[in-house]
Specification:
177 residues, alpha/beta, Glutaredoxin, six-stranded mixed beta sheet, 6 strands
């Protein structure tokens, strides 16, 4: 009996600790970090206080799936159907492997013509969003600020980026929450 009680106490303690520390951060928790991130390019104004859904994508200029994803994000932004939503792109791993190439970013911006702000990421941002370690990664937050959808490009996956259809479905969920 004593073992059973100890097992229950241990399990309850472990679950309580896991739920508090593993809970995804809300948009309200992350907004200040994003608001203070340096701008790379401003395709549209970022309004950190706006209450609509938020799409945050993590990218690098050398990432082919990121180029494809930007095409879908631009289409979504241009549609006008989701004007209540904000799209924010955060650059991570730009200097991967120690290679710095500012001209590559300029070409990426020219090629993708983002209709949303591009911000420079940091380790603090990467960690706050759940230790982002793959790009592209997209996170969608609902009106309440809670995460409603996440796409992570997995190595050797057939699906390499979020599509406009994925994003529309996520935004419909985000509008409801």
């Amino acid at each position: 009996m004593k073992r059973i009680i100890l097992a229950i106490v241990f399990a309850a303690t472990a679950l309580a600790g896991a739920s508090a520390s593993d809970r995804p951060a809300s948009w309200q928790d992350l907004r200040a970090l994003v608001d203070n991130a340096p701008s790379i390019a401003a395709g549209a104004d970022f309004d950190p206080a706006r209450q609509g859904p938020v799409i945050v994508t993590f990218f690098a200029s050398w990432c082919p799936p990121c180029t494809d994803e930007f095409r879908h994000l631009n289409s979504l932004a241009a549609s006008g159907e989701y004007d209540d939503a904000q799209i924010i792109a955060i650059n991570l791993y730009e200097d991967f492997g120690g290679v710095k190439n500012p001209q590559r970013m300029a070409r990426f911006i020219e090629r993708t013509a983002p209709q949303f702000p591009l911000l420079k990421g940091s380790d603090d941002i990467r960690e706050a969003f759940g230790n982002i370690d793959r790009i592209p990664t997209v996170v969608v937050y609902g009106r309440s600020g809670d995460e409603v959808w996440r796409f992570v490009h997995e190595r050797n996956a057939e699906k390499t980026h979020a599509t406009e259809a994925d994003l529309v479905e996520a935004l419909e969920q985000a509008r409801a929450r």
